[in-house]
Amino acid sequence: MFNRLKLALLKLSKVLVPLAGLSILIIFLYITPPGILDKVGAVGYSVCHQISDHSFHFGNQQLPLCARCSGMYLGAVVGLIFLNLRYHHSAGTPRKGVIALLILFGIAFAVDGSNSYLSLLKSISPQFKFLPDFYIPNNTLRLFTGSGVGLGIAVALFLSINQSLWKDWDTKPILRKPYDFFWLVALMLGIDLLVLPEWPWLLYPVAFISAGGVLFLLTMIYTVLWTVIMGQENTFLHFGQAWLPILAGLTIALLQITVIDLLRLSLTHTWGGFPLG
Fold it and tell me: What DSSP state is assigned to residue 94?
């Protein structure tokens, strides 16, 4: 009886999920400001404060994510691409040394984020002037610490995807090959150094990649959850076979972004950065 119900639900979802996805996409495109960069910005609007002073710009255009969030989502995208090319369906936990370094990246992110938040409080509220200045926050540190956490997110999500989706997932540890973690960090550092000069020709694609990273990460998180809830763990051999969970994940991700956008818009009455006054 339970198996019949599950099969019927899966069959029904093959019709309902595409319809729901198309509907949510139309709603998102309708409610968000016109222009492709503004719609990309609306994706970042759902997860980032978008404060101008905390963000990079090309010309008069602000990136859809602040410096910290840009680093985080760029790091996650770069990390996932790197891991997929090097380790494909491997899903074993990396070495303790790699985990320790990722934890240090997370600590650096927390420390710099806390210091930046305290500095922001002091700048907008006189009653917080008593707070100490540990160091002057800046977008360079925001970008670097965000990127470090992004690599950690990539490792965690890569393991979750492989262990949940693939029938032939490998128990061998990821980042086990000599110097792979070093090359991954070096690659991310190189990308960060290219972002810092704020060259328009480079930041334009960065805007799409970073905001696309938001949608991609949310999609894969919800894909894993859908797979678990629907009892489809370890039943796929490649992404083509997993089209329904991925489409369901994309639909839920778009729904979340749209709902948060509408809630934030109703509170702030602006599609711009979070008001500080």
Answer: P
With a threshold of 0.85, does the pTM exceed it?
A: yes
Give the confidence band of 262 by pLDDT, cuts at 50, 70, 90: very high
Residues 6+ apart with CB under 8 A from 267: none
Single out the residue of 11, 18, 14, 65 nearest to residue 37, CA to CA: 65
Q: Give the pair of three-digit tokens for residue 200.
A: 């328009």
**Res 277: pLDDT:** 59
Whole-number pLDDT of residue 3: 63
What is the per-residue pLDDT across 77-118, written as a single tens digit (0 to 9) for each? Answer: 999 999 999 999 999 999 999 999 999 999 999 999 999 998
Question: At residue 75, does pLDDT exceed 90?
Answer: yes
Q: Are residues 184 and 106 in contact, defined by beta-carbon separation less than 8 angstroms? A: no
Q: Which residues on neighbouring strands pair with residue 62, listed in sequence order?
A: 57
Alpha-carbon distance values, 36 to 28, 199, 203 (Å): 12, 20, 15
Domain ranges of the chain: 8-268
Q: Is 173 helix (H, G, I), strand (E, B) or coil?
A: strand
Buried b (16+ CB within 10 A) or exposed e, 197-229: eeeeeebeebbeebbbbbbbbbbbbbbbbbbee
